[in-house]
Amino acid sequence: MDYSTTVNLPKTDFPMKADLPKREPAMLASWEKDRVYQKALERRRPEKSKKQFILHDGPPYANGHLHLGHALNKILKDIIVRFKTMAGYYAPYVPGWDCHGLPIELQLMKELKIADKHQVDRQTFRDQAKAFAEKYVEIQREEFKRMGVLGEWEAPYLTMAPEYKKTIVDSFLELQKKGYVYRGLKPVLWCATDETALAEAEVEYENDPGPSLLVAFPGALALQGPETPPEIAQGVSFVIWTTTPWTLPANAAIAVHPNETYEVLRDQASSRLLVVASKRAEDFKKTSGLSLEAVGPSGLHLNGKDLVLIGQAKHPWINRAVKIVAADFVAMDAGTGLVHIAPGHGREDYQLGQQQSPPLPILSPVDDRGLFTEDFSDLKLKGQHVFKANKLIIDFLKEKGALLHSEEIVHSYPHCWRCHKPVIFRATEQWFLNVEHQGLRGRLLKSIKGVNWIPAYGQNRITGMVEARPDWCLSRQRLWGTEIPDEKRKTEPDILDVWFESGVSWAAVLQPRGEFPADMYLEGSDQHRGWFQTSLIPSVALRDTSPYKAVLTHGFVMDGEGRPMSKSLGNVISPQQIIDQYGADVLRLWVGSSDYGGDVRLAPAILKGHAEAYRKVRNTLRFFLGNLSDFDPGKDAVSLLSLHKNVDRWILSVLQSKIREARKAYDAYEFHRAAASLVDFCVRELSGLYLDLIKDRLYCDAARSASRRSAQTVLYRLAEALIRLWAPILPFTADEAWRLLGHARNVALEDLPDPVETVIDDGMGPDWQYVWNLRDEVYREIEEKRKAGHLGSSLEAWVTIGSRTPEFLALLDKVKMDLPMLYIVSKVDIDPNETHKVVVRHAKEAGCKKCARCWNWRADVGTRARWGEVCGRCAQALEGLPRKVPA
């Protein structure tokens, strides 16, 4: 007869092929219809739960489709919100969007083919920008939702919303009222391409080739006395080093280090006297190529402090006196030890100029587009771009005899983060936030110490940035943003820095909801100088506390070779491509499996690996569900104390350790450790061991037998725990499996499993490892017999175990009845007298026959008259079947 119809084959609607790209959208629709996010919150309302966790969303720009950086960020946030909710926390998630600023403005100008911001009507453009931002808010909202991210998508916060803009203006005015905000003429980072001031967070440093000049400023030393070399009376030249020739027209001083020694050298060819720092003299000789000698019998050396008192200089070609001033920042590791000072084009230069009495003039003869606004004596620069003017200035200096040396070097130079063009320092009237007012810098540093930084290096990173940061330039000369309330301004109003707008999100979003300060801010590591800092400053200034209790940062997404993704390299992968090919859960598994503390790599081969890991997890869940089709946990479950086999208790004890590992990893935000532990459990202990061992029981034991119900009870407990543990990372798959396990509501509404510490004792503990090691030995012997043609399936094997220590034999005695099942063979004997460790023979040598139903070789095959082809166990199972089964 066909015995295949009599075995308990798996049945499930959980397909092996996930087909996630097609099936996930329907699940999303059901989540919205069932109001899963709202119900999850309702279960954890503050009045119902004492625990609350507020993750505050940093707003992305609403200016295009999402990239993998967005996916990494939002999925990490969603994993946290989901696991916190399932851990019993009230954990709402309010997504937000940055709707103003240069990124949106430039993207819109590109779409409208506008080359110059001055060509547009301000209000018309602002209306178009609003519509543009609204369009991409909607696009990005749907793209985030497609990733399985839950949140208050119908009520996000938008920085362009009227109520949010009111908070921006109110915060600015409050800071102004408290004396933090002032308007002044200072050099700021300026993008001449975009015609606006920039904050420190808006520049990126790149290695650029550029000029390196040694320039002689004519002057004199007011030295008197008999020891003064007579040639000093003819005058000297102060040699400065600069990499920005275009700033020379704005020179107002030369800085020397007050505690360093300077000397006068004679150029043998021209007899010109040159002043340089003694420590830089040798390098100066090599670089300039001049033949130089000391002045006087023992040389002429002067202290920097004295040089300030007796030195007088003039501009190389402009009729302008140049003051010699002292500055501690003058370095001795490069240049000449004399620094060209242009207060209108440098932050340190400006600060040094303000310390003088009277202050140095702030010269900045450059307009918004980086064009010179005037000529300088015989040098015609008006209308020339500053970078193009470098060559004109170099040629002019050479003509005037002031250029001692010129070469091209590669150095680190700031670039605009949006257009990637080099920026300049330029003095303009701007609004600033004073980071020294009321000891703000010190208060910021104190607040930083009270925050939990994940990873820990974040604390040192932001500390260094706050220690060194200048006053915050708050104003921008653009069109699309929140206009600064300034009654005195008669021209077009400036707008506020978008970093200030997003930086007061705690005031606009958290405070009105009673959720300030947030438990966590989570963004990319670049935000230590961006949003983390621009949120901290107004919060400490206005509320004297940090807006966050913890800050978690992730790295950037790179390709498989560790390179940034870019269109020029052709290595860009979009989140939508991954979702279309594999589904959102595979994208989420990549995120959940990534050690995001550093940069994260992604390439087709890496994705394929995660898809394979997902397949293994899914197949494990499918095995659970398929073998639980006839199991009702309310009626059929076996108590833990009544489990049929030691191995059943063993796998449940392993499960408890996996629950502990996963919960610990989730709590530490080390999701890659949770994912690795759970995948490893599915592959090794489950698919590699336990599930193989129980197939015979599940398929061939009587359907309602205690042994089969014991195995099903274990499967049910495994399924319930694993599905919930996977739910934060794989919400689509977890919900699908959870429903098929017999639960009516979404798994997101459940609690994470807790380990059961006391009731599971298999009596073996760590001794199981010896059993599994022996299993490996048995399999090696079986494989040798198979290769020799003596065995086919392992079920044909009769195994004898010998040559063991008494302790090991005593251990085996605990499980000797289960050894055939554990090793998937038909017969196992333990013989202390056997000299070999493992002996494998064919089971027929032990007088066994093959059962036609279970395929085990048993001595009792054919002992039941009615069932002549099957073993006693199978005969008993057949007896319990309905009478339609023929004899």
Overview of the structural elements:
The protein is of the alpha/beta class and 887 residues long. It has 4 domains: 21-174 and 498-581, 3-Layer(aba) Sandwich (Rossmann fold), CATH 3.40.50.620; 209-410, Isoleucyl-tRNA Synthetase, domain 2, CATH 3.90.740.10; 600-749, Isoleucyl-tRNA Synthetase, Domain 1, CATH 1.10.730.20; 766-847, Class I aminoacyl-tRNA synthetases (RS) (hypothetical protein PF0899 fold, 2-Layer Sandwich), CATH 3.30.2320. It is 39% helix and 17% strand. The chain is built from 27 helices and 30 strands. Strands 6, 7, 8, 9, 10, 11, 12, 13, 14, 15 and 16 form an 11-stranded mixed β-sheet that branches. The protein has a 4-stranded parallel β-sheet with strand order 1-22-23-18, sandwiched between helices. The chain has a 4-stranded antiparallel β-sheet with strand order 5-4-17-19.
Radius of gyration from the alpha-carbon trace, in angstroms: 38 Å
**Percentage of residues in DSSP E strands:** 15-25%
Number of domains: 4
Number of strands: 30
Specify the overall morphology. elongated
Number of helices: 27
Low-confidence stretches: none
CATH class of the largest domain: Alpha Beta
Provide the fold topology:
Elements: H1 20-34, H2 36-43, E1 55-56, H3 68-86, E2 96-97, H4 102-111, H5 122-146, E3 157-158, H6 162-177, E4 181-191, E5 196-198, E6 203-221, E7 236-242, E8 253-256, E9 261-267, E10 273-277, H7 281-288, E11 292-294, E12 300-303, H8 304-310, E13 311-314, E14 321-326, E15 338-341, H9 347-355, H10 386-400, E16 403-416, E17 424-433, H11 440-449, E18 452-454, H12 457-468, E19 472-473, E20 475-476, E21 495-496, H13 498-503, H14 505-510, E22 518-524, H15 531-543, E23 548-554, E24 557-558, H16 575-581, H17 584-593, E25 600-601, H18 604-626, H19 633-636, H20 646-667, H21 671-700, H22 706-726, H23 731-740, H24 768-787, E26 797-801, H25 806-815, H26 819-823, E27 827-830, E28 838-842, E29 849-850, E30 857-858, H27 872-879
Parallel strand pairs: 1-22, 2-3, 7-10, 8-14, 18-23, 22-23, 24-25, 26-27
Antiparallel strand pairs: 4-5, 4-17, 6-7, 6-13, 6-16, 8-15, 9-10, 9-11, 9-12, 13-14, 17-19, 20-21, 26-28, 29-30
